From TrEMBL:
This is Cytidine deaminase-like protein. It comes from the Eukaryota. Pfam families: Inv-AAD. GO terms for biological process: nucleobase-containing compound metabolic process. InterPro entries: CMP_dCMP_dom, Cytidine_deaminase-like. It comes from Piromyces finnis. Residues 8-144 form the CMP/dCMP-type deaminase domain. PANTHER family: CYTOSINE DEAMINASE FAMILY MEMBER, RIBOFLAVIN BIOSYNTHESIS PROTEIN PYRD, CHLOROPLASTIC. GO terms for molecular function: diaminohydroxyphosphoribosylaminopyrimidine deaminase activity.
Amino acid sequence: MEQKSQEELDKYYMKLAIDEANKSIPLESAYCVGAVLVHPEKNIILATGFSRELPGNTHAEECCFLKLQNQEKENIIPSAADLMKNSTIYTTMEPCSKRLSGNKPCVDHILNYNVSRVVMGVKEPQNFVHCTGVQLLRDKGVEVTILDGFEEQCLKPNRHLNLKL
């Protein structure tokens, strides 16, 4: 079996994250984002998520983490934190650094679960808040990659908004 390069894997998982983003129900006050959390060594999907998939005004990345926590609570997996440590999260948009809802920002979740790599399709537009997710993550030693060539596909689920790039 031919092994894929990291670049090929990044593109593959980003396309899955875009598929997740397209499941989001559009709102005038929020983005439609998709995320895929991948095991660091086995390259298997640990969880997927999209904006508002779960109750509580959830973000895509947050849904991935919550799903794994729920699997731990149901004794499906032994430790969500162990699985997430050093994982990679693919997200169609820059992880939020501030939330108007008062909920915990996705950057905090990423740091809390020791995710070591974030691959994203586009930086967060300036519609709602000034996002500093990339810088906050890099400052804490998280590898952040912005994939070239995915901006249009990652923004498309948000066509209902007048995006300010």
